[in-house]
Here is the input.
Amino acid sequence: MKVIQTWDDGIVSDIRLIEVLRRHQAKATFCLNPGLYQENRSFGWIHENREVWRLSIHELVDVYNDFEICSHSMTHPYLTDHSADHLHWELQSSRHILENIFQKPVLGFCYPFNTYNDFVKDAVRSAGYKWARGNQHQEIVYPPIDPLEFHPCCHFLDQDFWGKYDRQKERNGVFFFWGHSYELTDETMWENFEMRIGGISSDPEVEWAFVADLFV
Here is the structure.
């Protein structure tokens, strides 16, 4: 079974998350908004009474070295609210900037707020993306009917995470989960997360993969 994971927003807590992933040789895909990064780290928002900070643009290469990079648009808007011209900027510019920063192709897209429609999908396709994360949770996720609606199995905090994992393993399928590192809000959650990643890495029937590995 292949296991893939995507993490959104490019925030400071990704540094700790990546330390966990590296300890267990786990691959992951990070979905970034290049229009929101500044010269220095910048305040993003409040989550459960904690500040969430974005990385600086100068940290991105070192932090995400060796991981897969996905566009999450330039500025994380509701794409369904925008014109074709603005969509072109959000989709094309974000891809080009990320490819310039990381010096490698950016083939995937993650819809901000998991919101899209056929018009947005057509724009994503025209921008040259090969896959995009969909907004539903499904038991059987691969191969998707449309790669631009590649739905995950679950969020990483899903109470049935291991049940869905085991059912995919029985099918020798693809287990796909997603999340945000800021959702890990205390030491117990971090410890449980590391045990989860370690458990997957130690499973001899499992192989970590990047999303693009499934579509290239």
Remarks:
- The radius of gyration is 17 Å.
